[in-house]
């Protein structure tokens, strides 16, 4: 059954239920539990019952989705105002109007108890009594309200006989009727539900709510630190005629108006550098990037990156900035540079961070000196001996990095700057001032994965053209991650870009580092493969 056909069938089922309700059919008789009429792809029994209750509300002139309710107080504010200040059984005359999602419901007898939850997870008890609202209203409450509904209560603030802070209702209304039932809230959500239906995760799982809040705090912290250092935030294009700024395979789309193919942004680097040319000496962007590559615990096709460039900085000054960004984020979100990961272990971002060089550490691991002059043939022989995977289009730099990753990539647990990379794999980085064949680049590793990278930025347009031509040759040879020649960028460099330090860091990866979560858990709405 196609999507359109199923949606049409569900509308027909909704209409059939409402027609029966309008004919004064009882709720239980208005539904078709076995789906004999519409088949197995129709609404399940629980959804049908909720659709029937919606229809009954409309029949009785009640709005299942009212435009406005007199919500005067937030649940979290009432908690802050009254917690610990009322004795068991004590009542006040303070009237409040609250709304929240129903997470618990006991509606037997003449007194019903409800647990309402605010969006941040703060909960409060509601009490609906026959004595206060009357028999007819209580009967309607029991008939219409389900778990998951958004419910409005107006009433007095009291403490129940057991001391539970409560709102004793004089008035109630459904604020939004939930047609889909919630999962069992006493059980832990499975990963598939949490990832495919993050809105359910936000309701049922405090970890999901915390991740959303802490991600927002982390981004705010990054912006404050940049602001403290007089950086200006700009926005660069997501759709680009030439992909560049990173070694990555792009997504391709088509623009009908111009009849041209465009690339989804893989990095904002080349546009942020144009800002340096234009005189914005300290610039940053927190942006969405797209890379058509693999998916694992630290990689996603759509992710958030922060990049920044500082005129007259170097890879040393930018390393100090990145350290400050990360440490301040940890303090702003968790109160300390020492954080507790999801597995219960502690990780400390404080103190001084370790540094090592790529060539020096690789030489130590191999027991022989590797330099920029080491031949591709020799490096390839070492890779084959160790069983290291080799690229279809390879060069000295790629082999050095693959060999280094074989020994170190997932073993650098404490924060570590790995410095001085091969020139072949770093086409946008300035040559090292004292080490021929290397560039002034570092990668920051945390808990076995790359968190950030930093450069002394290449600003010589002649050398940059040479590097991009080499990249173009690699692309023609089959390297899908190689960059194209961007003549507009080269022209901008020709106008004159000051010496600069630059950095890039995945915001999702920063959350991974701070929490121990996977990248899918840090992204509020991760891309997942459809089930159908």
Automatic annotation (TrEMBL):
Binds 3 Mg(2+) ions per subunit. Its cofactor is Mg(2+). PROSITE patterns: AA_TRNA_LIGASE_II. Keywords: Aminoacyl-tRNA synthetase, ATP-binding, Cytoplasm, Ligase, Magnesium, Metal-binding, Nucleotide-binding, Protein biosynthesis. It is found in: Cytoplasm. InterPro entries: Aa-tRNA-synt_II (IPR004364), aa-tRNA-synth_II (IPR006195), aa-tRNA-synth_II/BPL/LPL (IPR045864), Lys-tRNA-ligase_II (IPR002313), Lys-tRNA-ligase_II_N (IPR044136), Lys-tRNA-synth_II_C (IPR018149), NA-bd_OB-fold (IPR012340), NA-bd_OB_tRNA (IPR004365). Gene3D superfamilies: Bira Bifunctional Protein, Domain 2, Nucleic acid-binding proteins. One of its GO terms (biological process) is lysyl-tRNA aminoacylation. GO terms for molecular function: ATP binding; lysine-tRNA ligase activity; magnesium ion binding; tRNA binding. Mg(2+) 1 binds at residues 443, 450. CDD domains: LysRS_N (cd04322). Mg(2+) 2 binds at residue 450. One of its GO terms (cellular component) is cytosol. It catalyses: tRNA(Lys) + L-lysine + ATP = L-lysyl-tRNA(Lys) + AMP + diphosphate. The keyword Magnesium applies. The keyword Magnesium applies. Residues 215-530 form the Aminoacyl-transfer RNA synthetases class-II family profile domain. Its EC number is 6.1.1.6. Belongs to the class-II aminoacyl-tRNA synthetase family. Homodimer. This is Lysine--tRNA ligase. It comes from Bifidobacterium mongoliense DSM 21395.
């Amino acid at each position: 059954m196609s999507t359109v056909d199923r949606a049409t069938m569900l509308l027909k089922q909704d209409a059939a239920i409402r027609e029966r309700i309008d004919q004064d059919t009882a709720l239980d008789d208005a539904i078709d539990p076995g789906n004999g009429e519409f088949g197995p792809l129709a609404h399940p029994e629980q959804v049908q019952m909720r659709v029937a209750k919606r229809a009954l509300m409309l029949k009785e002139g009640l709005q299942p989705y009212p435009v406005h309710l007199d919500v005067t107080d937030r649940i979290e504010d009432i908690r802050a105002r009254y917690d610990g200040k009322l004795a068991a059984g004590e009542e006040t005359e303070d009237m409040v109007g609250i709304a929240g999602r129903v997470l618990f419901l006991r509606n037997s007898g003449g007194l019903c108890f409800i647990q309402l939850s605010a969006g941040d997870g703060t909960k409060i008890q509601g009490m609906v009594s026959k004595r206060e609202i009357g028999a007819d209203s209580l009967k309607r409450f029991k008939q219409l309200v389900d778990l998951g509904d958004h419910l409005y209560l107006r009433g007095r603030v009291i403490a129940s006989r057991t001391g539970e802070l409560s709102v004793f209702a004089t008035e109630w209304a459904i604020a939004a009727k939930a047609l889909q039932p919630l999962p069992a809230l006493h059980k832990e959500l499975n990963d598939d539900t949490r990832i495919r239906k993050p809105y359910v995760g936000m309701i049922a799982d405090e970890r999901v709510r915390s991740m959303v809040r802490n991600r927002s705090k982390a981004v705010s912290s990054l912006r404050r630190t940049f602001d403290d250092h007089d950086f200006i935030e700009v926005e660069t294009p997501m759709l680009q005629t030439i992909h560049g700024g990173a070694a990555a395979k792009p997504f391709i789309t088509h623009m009908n108006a111009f009849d041209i193919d465009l690339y989804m942004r893989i990095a904002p680097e080349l546009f942020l550098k144009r800002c340096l040319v234009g005189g914005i000496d300290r610039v940053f962007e927190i942006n969405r990037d797209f890379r058509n590559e693999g998916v694992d615990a630290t990689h996603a096709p759509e992710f958030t990156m922060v990049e920044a460039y500082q005129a007259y900085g170097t890879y040393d000054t930018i390393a100090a900035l990145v350290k400050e960004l990360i440490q301040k984020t940890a303090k702003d979100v968790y109160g300390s540079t020492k954080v507790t990961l999801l597995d219960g272990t502690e990780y400390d971002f404080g103190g001084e961070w370790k540094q090592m060089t790529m060539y020096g550490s690789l030489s130590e691991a191999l027991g022989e000196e590797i330099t920029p002059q080491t031949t591709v043939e020799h490096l390839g022989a070492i890779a084959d001996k160790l069983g290291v995977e080799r690229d279809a289009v390879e060069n000295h730099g790629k082999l050095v990095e693959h060999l280094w990753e074989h020994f170190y990539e997932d073993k650098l647990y404490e924060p570590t700057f790995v410095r001085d990379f091969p020139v072949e794999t770093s086409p946008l980085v300035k040559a090292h001032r004292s080490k021929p064949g290397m560039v002034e680049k570092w990668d920051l590793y945390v808990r076995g994965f790359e968190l950030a990278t930093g450069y002394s930025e290449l600003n010589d347009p002649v050398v940059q053209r040479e590097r991009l031509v080499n990249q173009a040759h690699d692309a023609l040879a089959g390297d899908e991650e190689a960059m194209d020649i961007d003549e507009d960028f080269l022209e901008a460099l020709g106008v004159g870009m000051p010496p600069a330090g630059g950095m890039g860091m995945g915001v999702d990866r920063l959350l991974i580092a701070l929490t121990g979560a996977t990248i899918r858990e840090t992204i509020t709405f991760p891309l997942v493969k459809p089930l159908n």
